[in-house]
Amino acid sequence: MKKIILAGLLLISGLAHADYRDVPQHDRDYARVISIEPKYTTVQQQVCQQGTVTRSNQGRDTAIGAGVGAVTGTAIAGRHDKLLGAVVGGVAGAVIGSEVGQDSTTTVPTQVCHVEQQTVRAGDIVTFEYRGVRFTQVFGQ
Fold first, then answer.
1. What gap in Å lies between CA 106 and CA 95, rounded to an integer?
2. How far apart are CA 10 and CA 73, in angstroms?
3. Count of CB atoms within 10 A of residue 97's CB?
4. Which runs of E-coded beta strand occur in the chain?
5. Tens-digit pLDDT profile for the chain (141 aa)?
6. Which of 62, 64, 85 is nearest to 73 (CA)?
7. What distances in angstroms separate CA 26 from CA 17, 21, 31, 131, one per listed residue?
8. How many angstroms separate the Cα of 46 from the Cα of each of 65, 69, 106, 115, 116?
9. pTM of the model
């Protein structure tokens, strides 16, 4: 009885160690690849660019000049002429401020972004034949 069990174990052990290369070519299970085509998809991507914008300070300087001129005109004018002093001072200050601001600019860093559509590869469409039947499978999604 021990000899039969030992012989059975040796037989099972030998089958467990069988090498795939020992299987005849016609008994192997494989598929034949017929074609591989790239699969593309469209995605939206935000693209940003750094830059600078140069802005004129003329409007700001005109407003500041008008304000300073109005306050100064009111202070210089007599007691009953404060409105006239404010108007004349404001106009004069605005003219002077505009002239000062004409050559004055400020450069401001900016970032301009927009969305672009881009086509990217999303995988492969593989067509293969297995046991006489043709299959198509998408890989890499």
1. 20
2. 117
3. 23
4. 32-56, 105-130, 133-139
5. 545 554 444 445 454 444 555 556 666 688 999 999 999 999 999 999 998 877 766 677 778 877 887 777 777 777 777 777 777 777 887 777 777 766 667 788 889 899 999 999 999 999 999 989 999 999 986
6. 85
7. 21, 12, 13, 12
8. 43, 48, 28, 4, 6
9. 0.37
Label the pairing between strands 105-130 and 32-56.
antiparallel
The answer to whether the beta carbons of residues 95 and 61 sit under 8 Å apart is: no
Tokens of 36: 């591989």
Amino acid at 3: K
- Residue 47, both tokens: 């693209």
Token duo for residue 40: 């593309």
Residue owning tokens 């914008």: 53
